[in-house]
């Protein structure tokens, strides 16, 4: 009989198939979806700690993120779809519209962020890659998004990120925060891109959101 600690360990090890099997077994054994999400969050915290100590490599993070995504997609989301009213409180932390900026087709990092955001309780609308600035704003308006997340790994495309905030102001959407990430934006200041925050990595983004939620101190 598996327990939540087994789920945590397998996610950290990047064992996607086994993680899904364990999560399904936990559900069948009477564990709740919030309990499973708690396990995923513990795995996330463990990976975050490794990042701080430089005890990780990119492959490890990618495999763990894939395992989390499989559990979220195949267990958590499916269970929520069966009983949406029962899980109405999940996804209430806020709405994130996210995508890779126009001119850039890289999305591995963005996909990791999507998985982690969903794991910790955000509703995420993933626009995909090569997305023009206006599409971020149109979707954010339609979805009443609290946040726009924009990724860029190509320096030539990063300049387009500046347009998002300007378009938000035109729509009087002053409360929608714009958060940028990716290799192309790490060496610039947030003022240069006209954004509210530049995230060094997915874990820094999660910590930033926790501060906004009032769950942790700055």
From TrEMBL:
Gene3D superfamilies: Cobalamin-binding domain
GO biological process, one term: homocysteine metabolic process
Domain of life: Bacteria
SMART domains in alphabetical order: B12-binding_2
GO cellular component: cytosol
InterPro entries, per database record: Cbl-bd_cap, Cobalamin-bd, Cobalamin-bd_sf, Met_Synthase/Corrinoid
Molecular functions (GO terms): cobalamin binding; metal ion binding; methionine synthase activity
UniProtKB keywords: Cobalt, Metal-binding
Pfam families xrefs: B12-binding
Keyword field contains Metal-binding: yes
Domain B12-binding residues, every copy: 93-218
Keyword Metal-binding: yes
PANTHER family for this protein: METHIONINE SYNTHASE (PTHR45833)
Protein name, per record: Putative cobalamin binding protein
Source species: Desulfitobacterium dichloroeliminans (strain LMG P-21439 / DCA1)
